Fold this protein.
Amino acid sequence: MKVLGILGSHKCNGITAKMLDAVLTAVPAPHETELLFLEDYDIKPDTGEPNLVLDQIEQKLIASDVWVLAAPTYIGALSGVMKNFLDCLRQRMGRFDHTGAIHPTKFKDKHYLSITTCYTGTVENVLTGATDDTFKTIDKAMSLAGLIKIHELVLTNSYGQTKLSQAKKEECARWGAKIANKQKRDDSTVKRYIELFFMVAIMAFITMGIQRLINPTLVGAQFWWSVGSFVVIFYVLLAFILHFMTVMKHKRK
């Protein structure tokens, strides 16, 4: 397996680069790692003319099983270096149909982990989501190309930082060690929601059973109607909340 680190910052030795390095260094042997520093390349979009730079980068992307995209958050958005890379890569993310929609091809089912840093403090980032747009931009591009998300890492209060704290090094190292095991698509989402439904149903049955002991008038069809409606309403609300917290909201600290 090969892990490709993609650094979308202006500095090759900044705090974002240090996070990326901590992840790549922890990737266990015999897996290979490579660093792609985007500032080393004059990346231009496809215009119908030969594009040797993008050809070279594309071959690195194809040869890699996991991409680790690392870029700072500037003014609440993804850095221009990484955004330019994603914009220029767009025409190669897959097959375009007659409506302009992208259908994943060469990059489909690869995995990715995203990293960002920001000047914003931890509490402010939790409350305002300063890094949300950065991750959403990366996620959108990777989703179009058919990649599977592993995780995301963020470092707040990055202004003036020249080295990672021990806790952050360990967090990066944990995920560097883990990504070698993230090679299969997680197809258990539906299974988990079915399991969740039955868990809710059982809990509702127990809850309503206790209520029946307290209120003996809750019998017959009335009892089962109460159980059924409670399960459906509670499950829908719970599923929505879980989806929002795990998919719509991002790690912010």
